[in-house]
Amino acid sequence: MNRDEGSGSGYAESIVAALGDGAYVLDADRNRVFVNDRLREVTGFSDEVLHGKHPERIVAEGYWDEATGERFRVATERVLAGESDDERVQLTTTLSDGSTVTTETRLTPLTEEAAGGSEGPTEVVGLVGVIRDVTERVERENELARLNERLERLSGFLSHDLKNPLAVARGYLDVARDTGDLDRLDPADDALDRIETLIDEALVMAREPAVIEVDLAPIDLDALATDCWESGDFGDPPADATLVVEEVGPIAADRDLLRRAIGNLLGNAFDHAGDAPAVRVGVDDRGIYVADDGPGLAADERSEHGDVTEFGVSNDGGTGIGLAIVERVAAAHGWTLEIGESADGGFEARLVGAEPTG
């Protein structure tokens, strides 16, 4: 008798064989004794793997990690011990071709009558596992979770960071109304500009990079960086700060998006690089860089790149959106953001992949 004709119930095997989903029968020792054609087709696993002891053999072959194997083992032991009539366990499996699939496996007991006839008790002699591919569902759920998290952060960002410029604008408008001093409208106008900037940045953060519209055109980096520096849109540079733009050719980029990225990096230097920072902007064989001679980031902060650029993360009580915006702009262009130490020991951010058009 070959292994596919083994100790599992013939009736159960007939059902398993006919199922459209991958399915199998395990004996009481967690050996697979019957596997349907669908499971063979999807996994591409050899008979030695399919009929080995589970989860031990699957883990040993590298198709499951230890944590996945342990979840499966606990679920099967509950069924085999008669503690559960229906266990469902979600598993991520690496297939023979190297791809991964997320499945939900339903485990139900396989029983037979114990000695004593039909009136006697039944004992669990194995179980039936039915596997359903839930990869797309899980991806949708994960995407929804990421979207909800982003919306929560955006909500917190807007509700918190819009309050201050709104209060400033209202305050100066009230003063102008009471006194007739129209000069009081200038700071109110500045506050409204700040609100507009915050909303624009929130809109960038609300979209996935793949759906952000990128209108490529040759951009003069010198003119763009100088405009960001002088406009005040990204903060005011310290009185003794200096900007040096290395001479480069035009950069193929979306002007508005690149301006926002460069502006946020310059604003970061204004806030963190000291009272008289020297800031350099240019392009080399690795991409656009913005570097300063300030204190920079500590080594542990540089190693935690993902935390530093995460939306809503700030080490000094700021908005926590500046570097997140830069990373989003880079991704929309097909570039990557790298941060590290500048040649002067300060902070350096680099848009890897950007290059002159000439």
UniProtKB/TrEMBL annotation:
One of its GO terms (cellular component) is membrane. One of its GO terms (biological process) is osmosensory signaling via phosphorelay pathway. Residues 85-146 form the PAC domain. It is an enzyme of class 2 (transferase). GO terms for molecular function: phosphorelay response regulator activity; phosphorelay sensor kinase activity; protein kinase activator activity. Its EC number is 2.7.13.3. Keywords: Kinase, Membrane, Transferase. Residues 157-351 form the Histidine kinase domain. InterPro entries: BphY/WalK/GraS-like, HATPase_C_sf, HATPase_dom, His_kinase_dom, HisK_dim/P_dom, HisK_dim/P_sf, PAS, PAS-assoc_C. This is histidine kinase.
